Amino acid sequence: SVVDANQSTTLEVLPLCTPGGTKEWIPCCSTDLKPYVGMQFFSIEDGLKFYKTYAEACGFNVRKATTTKSKKGDVAFKYFLCNKAGFKEKRKAQVVDKLKDNEGGDVVVQSSLISRKRLVTRVGCKAKMVLKLLSKSSYVVTIFHEGHTHPLYTPSSRKFQKGCRKISMLHKKMIFDNSKVNIGPVKTFRLVKEYVGGYENVGASKEDFKNFHRDLKAYIEGSDAQMFVDNFKMKRLLWSAYFFDYEVDEDDCLCRAFWADPICRRNYSVFGDMVSFDTTYQFNKYSMIFGPFTGVDHHKRCVTFAGSFIAKEDVSSFEWLFSTFLKGMGGKEPVCLITDQDPAMGIAIKNVFDKTEHRYCMWHIMKKMSDKVGRAITKETDFLEKLCGCVWSLEIEPDEFERSWKSIMCEFGLQSHDWLGQIYDIRKLWIPAYFRDLFMGGIMRTTSRSESENNFFTCFTNPHVTLVEFYMRYESAMDAQRHSQSNFDNDSKNKYPELKTPLLIEKHASQLYTTTVFYELQYEIEIACFNCGFDGFRRENELEFVSVKEGSRRRTYEVVFNCNNYDTHCSCKMFERQGLPCRHMFFVWKGKLLDRIPEKYVLNRWTIMATKQATFSLEGHISDQCVKIVDKKRILNEVWSEIHNCVSLAEDNEDDLIYLLNNLKALKLDLESKKDGNVPQCKKTKDIEFLIGASAPNESTIKPPKISKNKGSGEQFSSNVIAGAQRLKGEKEKAMEKQEKKKRMCKGCGELCHHDIRNCPYKSK
Q1: Are 275 and 242 in contact (CB under 8 A)?
Q2: Chain segment 724-760, per-residue pLDDT in tens
């Protein structure tokens, strides 16, 4: 047969029958690629590289085998075999079923042997090459058997062979980077296929991608908590304004952690008047509670002030967490702290904060309404509509709310409902009518604030990640949040909203406030011009009392205006609640021909330049440190970006592509020549360390957290309950899961249902 020497894989072999009757296949290839007895190499690595090149051209894979050493410790003989040499020992998997007895001990019920279905790869092939030590600087081929007892690989199957697959740094980086946005290795494999044009060009298999992702987790395993804390210490060295703290339990297991980078601390100094703290997140394999401290920025978007982990939802954990939060934020307390109805959290807030007003999140309470009251009332009547009109109203006084609430309860016969009575007793902590003068930044009115923040973090993480993985994903989430804020900043500075009135005060507002906030003010100005009217006036010394009425609404609002210093106060109290002038104030200012919003009614937190004010701390100027860090990973990202840019520039011209390819190959050879091949290195480990940005410590003083047993974790059962028990699910949750589950055909009863023949209720019949 004739074979092109430039082909990477042969298409033909010479069949040969040995004297013993065994059929062998002799590969055809160029004599320059074939080893022979007496051939010499400078090292074992050179011999292996040559034999692998020969194997690639012929269509088989190579594996290392026996190594014999001399008395001096040198390698005297080295065997290289076909990967199908020898035979695999048959194995059986032993399965032991265990149950828990009443005392919590394991009781073995039954043991069985199950044969696993495995594909055999080793068929006793005799092909091999043996190297013998000739001198200190050379090895000689003493045995070379080229016949194979099996057919060789064809070109179409070459991409599936282990010897032709290699997971590159590009693959590893894509697996690592995609995991930060919750994309797993299988989907990453599909994405790479689209990038390179086909599965044959990927250079690795789906299993290779999954194995590297597994190795990444295995590298972190055991040193997870230590690497997590070491990462904080490294950040502290880079940023003096970086704040973190942690605690371990009596077994040296991590149980509490808190962190806030300089940008978070700067944001808190500007937007920290209102803070929402939510502990409904469980985004790690230890079921630790992740509690972000969240606020509202000048674009009315969520902004994260700090992150935290706690193992237990008890008073001491929350007290430590809130005390650490105050310490990290320079002792500045928020005006208002919004949480859920956790009793331990309420006690801790009273013990730690002196000036902060504690309020419950209305969204969490109203979300339970259908379950607590009953879906029949909420769905078939207008109960929920009337209750929302009463609860969410921002203009009624407490006595009006109480009359409206009692009227609704009487109408629907719910006067003795236990849960409604409980939330009515704590009405001062969640009904806006009782804190109309308290600045809330609009967060109480935005019912989806907690839900949107939860969805935001869900896009980046999941409940199965380690602490190290979680923190890397948390940083990606922060990058996305800050990029979004920068984008809105750019729009507010360089794009101008369309004005709807000729009033100079509207133009002044468009120059001061961010676009999002201005649109809200523009609506107030528009209502002031076209829907508000004069209903009464009186003067007392320098104060003017103006009664303002809106269209067909029965309620009138009283605005008090001081002609000397432009002090303005409205009975709707919108400015006190949100920090923005209301339509009634604009109506009076329009009548007084003011061309600018009085300075005392312009809150810096809503302006375009809110984040540009100087922010100082004990460690130095935080704003300078926010842009200080430059690391090796950023340079790597720039290299990848430049490579992709070069490919996009050359893709339209074949000559340019060939020129680029040749230059990249030359650069690759140059870089490979600089590597010290004599120093043994575990490349996979070094790549993982580079991607993570840290190495596993030789000795860990901080152990990984214990599995937490909190609400909803499925771990809060005592030890005498059988293994695998989960939390009890409500009827609503069971019904929703059953509805989402697809039906399948049961071979036992022949019906389309949610069971199969194994658990069919009619099986015994």
Answers
A1: no
A2: 334 445 556 666 666 667 778 888 788 888 778 778 8
